[in-house]
Task: inverse folding
């Protein structure tokens, strides 16, 4: 959640992992057995990475709240903290793509490939709906316009990723990199100043930034869907998903308590993301550190 001081061009946004993975089928088909055996061991790596990402989100929003509501001399939207926010967003989106690779491999190994598209549609629609809920809350509290934030992005990307799931990692990278480059170019070069508000909002998901709107959370498909594809490519390459006899990562490693704790947080990033800002604001308000102004 962002406060009323959000400025145009502040594209900070964060989001959750696209899904929680669980142990595989007891009877995977030939070629998927090795994957199923190593999945639980690999899973803590991904969940721990999500745990680190959500802690970065909480830390950034604590700094943002102190800046926006407390009047502390912190520039939370540019410089170090602006970059910190972007790195956190990159981590979430990249891990979303990586998780899609693991999830697709699991569905294929369990013989659910034909129904996987429907699952992605429902999952993506649910996360997108959470994004729309945040849009309504920000509008009601006059905190700015969340036209296409991180939850909108991840929800839409889960659905859009379906045609790309069977591509090789190299092809995914070749698609993802130009999308990232094109999006960066669009954000730096074009805006919707020549269009009405309705058209501007419709163009916002594609990297054409609306003018005259305070957007505290803006992560358009261009360039960020390219990051999803890069995460998908990495997941396929690094974890050798679907390849018989492939070496799985983390098979023999026993994570420490600290890593298990991070993995626990990583398995609940969606819930933490949705509730952490209200909890932070309420706690700081009760302690007399900030004055939210609503």
Result:
């Amino acid at each position: 959640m962002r406060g009323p001081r959000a400025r145009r061009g502040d594209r900070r946004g964060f989001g959750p992992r696209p899904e929680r993975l669980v142990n595989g089928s007891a009877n995977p088909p030939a070629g998927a057995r090795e994957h199923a055996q190593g999945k639980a061991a690999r899973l803590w790596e991904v969940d721990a990475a999500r745990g680190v990402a959500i802690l970065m989100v909480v830390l950034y929003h604590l700094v943002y709240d102190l800046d926006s509501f407390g009047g502390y001399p912190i520039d939370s939207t540019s410089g170090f903290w602006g970059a910190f926010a972007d790195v956190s967003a990159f981590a979430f989106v990249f891990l979303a793509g990586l998780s899609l690779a693991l999830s697709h491999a699991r569905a294929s190994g369990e013989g659910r490939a034909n129904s996987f598209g429907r699952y992605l549609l429902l999952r993506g629609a649910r996360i997108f709906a959470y994004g729309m809920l945040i849009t309504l809350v920000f509008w009601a509290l006059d905190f700015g316009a969340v036209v296409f934030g991180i939850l909108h992005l991840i929800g839409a990307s889960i659905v859009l990723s379906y045609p790309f799931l069977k591509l090789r990692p190299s092809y995914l990278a070749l698609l993802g990199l130009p999308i990232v480059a094109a999006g960066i170019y669009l954000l730096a070069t074009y805006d919707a100043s020549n269009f009405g508000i309705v058209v501007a909002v419709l163009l916002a998901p594609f990297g054409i930034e609306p003018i005259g709107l305070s957007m505290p959370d803006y992560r358009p498909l261009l360039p960020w869907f390219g990051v999803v594809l890069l995460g998908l490519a990495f997941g396929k390459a690094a974890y050798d998903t679907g390849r018989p006899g492939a070496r799985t990562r983390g098979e023999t490693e026993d994570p420490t308590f600290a890593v298990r704790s991070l993995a626990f947080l990583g398995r609940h990033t969606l819930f933490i993301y949705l509730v952490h800002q209200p909890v932070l604001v309420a706690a700081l308000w009760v302690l007399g550190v900030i004055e939210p102004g609503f």
Observations:
- The chain has one domain: 33-286.
- The first helix runs from residue 33 to 68.
- The two ends are 13 Å apart (CA to CA).
- Residues 33-286 form one domain.
